[in-house]
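Loading example: each entry is read as two labelled lines plus one structure line.
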Amino acid sequence: MKNKTNRLPQEAGARPSRCPDNSAFKQQRLPAWKPQLTIASVLSSFFLIGAFCLLVGICLILSANSVREFQINYSDKCSECSKLRENTSNWNKECHCSVNFTLKEDMLGDVFMYYGLQNFYQNHRRYVISRSDAQLLGRSVNIEKSYCAPFTTYQNGTPMAPCGAIANSMFNDTIDLFYNLNSSVVQVPLLKTGNSWWTDKNVKFRNPKSYNLSSAFAGTARPPYWQKPVYLLDEEDERNNGYVNDDFIIWMRVSAFATFRNLYRRIGRVRQFVDGLPAGNYTFRISYNFPVSKFKGRKHVILSTVVWSGGSNPFLGIAYVVTGTAATLMGFVITAIHLKLRKKKTYFQK
Amino acid sequence: RSMNAFLIVYLCILISKALINTVLKYVWQSEPFRDEPWYNQKTEPERKRNLFLQALTDFLAFMVLFNYIIPVSMYVTVEMQKFLGSYFLTWDEEMFDEDTGEGPLVNTSDLNEELGQIEYVFTDKTGTLTENNMEFVECCIEGHVYVPHVICNGQILHDCTGIDMIDSSPGGSGKEREDLFFRALCLCHTVQVKDDDSVDGLRKNQLSKPCIYISSSPDEVALVEGIQRLGYTYLRLKDNFMEILNRENNIEKFELLEVLSFDSVRRRMSVIVKSSGGDIFLFCKGADSSIFPRVKEGKIDQIRSRVERNAVEGLRTLCVAYKKLTAEEYSCAQKLLQNAKLALQDREKKLAEVYEKIERDFILLGATAVEDRLQEKAADTIESLQKAGIKVWVLTGDKMETAAATCYACKLFRRNTQLLELTTKKIEEQSLHDVLFDLSKTVLRHSGSLTRDTFSGLSTDMQDYGLIIDGAALSLIMKPRQDGSSANYRELFLEICRNCSAVLCCRMAPLQKAQIVKLIKLSKEHPITLAIGDGANDVSMILEAHVGIGIIGKEGRQAARNSDYAIPKFKHLKKMLLVHGHFYYVRISELVQYFFYKNVCFIFPQFLYQFFCGFSQQTLYDTAYLTLYNISFTSLPILLYGLMEQHVSADTLKREPSLYRDVAKNALLRWRAFIYWTFLGVFDAVVFFFGAYFLFDNTVVTSNGQMFGNWTFGTVVFTVLVFTVTLKLALDTHYWTWINHFMIWGSLVFYIVFSLLWGGIIWPFLNYQRMYYVFMQMLSSGPAWLGIILLITVSLLPDVLKKVLCRQLWPTATERIQNASRHCREHISEFTPLACLKSPRYRSSDCSHSPARRSNSHSKKMMFTHWRGIDYSVLPSVFGYSNKQGRSRAGYRYSGSGLETSV
């Protein structure tokens, strides 16, 4: 590969006026780099790509293997609650459920707690557009203009805050984690803030301005499926209340697929949980509110650690290894073909 | 042209996609918990809507969602490419004619790519192949050759009146013959002298100023002018006396007694003159075939060989003979003529008989050679066109012999070309039916053996056929018959033509020219035709052909004005077709295919996404991305490619006309290529979508445990898409100017900058902020980076692999040339063995840019055939190592045989 510059010598003047310019561009003679698929460049690139992919792939697989993940399907385990929730009329009856499990190994490092939903089409078009970003920015807007319908206003005209199907269907189970240590039960500290994107929390979601939160939401009503209004989402922490509630913000970021998980809590690394979750017996205590059996969905609760390459997804590592292997093999095949053809050629030259 | 077919396919794909999705949507929705789960309720009006109406709305919504698969922007880009691209033609310096100060004109930019697809060239002769400017070249007296001095563009230089004699020592009788010869030429014609200014002016400048001669035949003018340069000037015909200024500046007077005028049956003319000394001479000049049988004395053999040599060179030859008449003979002849002229019945027949009687027992003096000068490089151009697999037909109004001579001169017919004649004369002898069948039998037997020969890989020198047909015969063939057999004749005629490498149609009326073009145009292969001409009589054919080219010539601008393109000279056709046409075709075909490809890549993930979002028409990409994808992210690089790409250099294309065959018959836009691109697009789309799907598959993609949503997913897919599609084009680009670099890398940078900006601000005028910080968050995640890199690599690898393998196993001529030129440039060891095999030859012929070698067309031709020969012998054994490749070999053979017929 070599730069070829073939610029015509610029002849000065003395040409008829109608004669076209003798510029390199007009004569299509701009200096150009003319890359060729040479055997050397092709083979080296194939082998380089192969080596690179294999290397990255192995790193990824190794690091993904160090991720610990634990997952429980609690909609099956709490079948009574599931049944109760199937009937809409029982919506305000509380239902609690405990799920025991054992961690066989320690989960070291930051441990994240996710709730997972299956068969919940958050990516349905009608669902995705059913929100008002302007409202969530704390502006007083006419949400009639948004796509929030049918969760815009009540029949008496009171607007819903927040409006729309996404907000209305917010995940409202409460999950607590307890560590059973020698017959004593220790509640695992869970952090409920800092789980959402910083920009979402600080820019994209704003409460309406007012002297206090409940007055800010005066004149609005909670969405129909909510048990409490938006300004009571977190009564303990003023900065995690209203629209800027982390759980709410996370829910509002709709998932790409019908099976998804959202970050629910992080394990606070204090006391015996400084290094993460030690192996042992644990209990999830769940306040079961969110009905999933009606759409044949499932709910999971997931405990997971995370490394630089994300969670426990072997796909990326495997894909890299496969690609690397394929590229290397192709390199060998090309070499073989090349050698074979060259042999033929020498034969012919004799 | 194939674009429209492709579009229809895509339209079908679009409709079927929308249909599939609509149907699946209703199947999927049939369970109520899916149609309207509690978390996602419909509004009242939606619920009440009629099911059929709803289905229709859904169908239309899917159509809107997938409409990008029909690349609307392609039409804009194609038009822009054609329009801007045609400027390169007008700007081309090599196609600028210094003499006339004219450059090429582009009257339509619609046909640029057709220039790369021409299969038939119909050319006018006079004024197109030739300059319409006769030139006396030499005369041969008694075997001595006389060449007039310097000739410059048909203008005689005043100081060049001397004689350049090759053998300047004629003996005594030789001298006498020479004088007679010159006098014969001076006297035996029907030229009239036009006094330029006045008689007075003429007299004054007699010696130096050439008179202006006018004649019905340009040959005679050329002859008289030529003789003038040899020292004998014909002054005028005055009172039946012809005045000649001889070499000693004496005026000789001859009394013109009789003119036995020219006719095309006798193909000769004679004059009977009486010299001032009282001798009566009969001078005759005519075609060799009509003179030689009547000669009784003279150096026949020497002159005949000279004449033949000249004829082969494409010169128009005439023989000159004389006879000295005694007074009795003359009076006898005069009587006979008188009687014949006065005859009331069969006058022409009687005249012919009398001429026959009088014109005999000549003494041969010599021969002349006149050249209707070919346009410069006409032969080279025609040769190149033929090598490029283009069939060249010459359509002319001239008579057969002249036309044939020109065809020989411009190498349309070669010495080994076997001529098939389909002329009125022949049809008179046999019936049209028989003639046609005979010819087709000859030709078909030949072509049958040809295919076998090419299969054995040994035939390199083969007999080719040239067909000569005249207007009358053509009209017989074209004439519709009552019994409906005309179609049969037409087919037969086409069959013959198809197997002839060159066809000459003489004595054509302008409308017949158009008729021929139409006949070929509508024949069953629907070849692309090109007509080129300069005069008003060519306009009909120019209009009829797919591409009409006018020569900006002497005969006014009518042809140029009615044409699609106008060029100053015939030779410019070579660059126009072989270089510009080739480029245009390669560019536009890549452009079209690439557009389809990138839109498949773009929209197919969208289609796949419908299976995961409940067929709800949810878009995968943000609206801004949907809108800008075709407008700004991916449009400029391909437009630039469409303007700048040169897969091989222009010089190489000009040097190797055979490369034109690589793109012939729409090779790059065939269904196979189209399907390949489409599948590549689908493959890439599947890689993008499922790659990202598994990457996001219910797992964490960040290192801080946070989750990404659907817009991040879409953005990942879109980022991979933009990069892959742009890099694919980068891989296809063979010619990287700074503009290409700027555009390709620029549009990638633009995409990134745009995304950062688009996601970086809460846009006040938008009622949604879904992209807010999505792109930045994606960039902050390591696995997303790795995933993007992996997916780009994976989607590009197969195409690279395919290219590499095809290049190694079945290299096209273009690729071999590319390799060879690289090889020559760098002198590094080989990549493709074929290139290496040939490279020594290349080095000698092409890489040493010595003008001497290049001008030596003969050695080049030899080189070419040699090269071809090697190719054919090498290919089978190189490829013959597996059965699978055997098939492709057959394909190659097939194209090979196709191309051999026309050489």
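Chain B touches chain A through 105 residues (CB under 8 Å).
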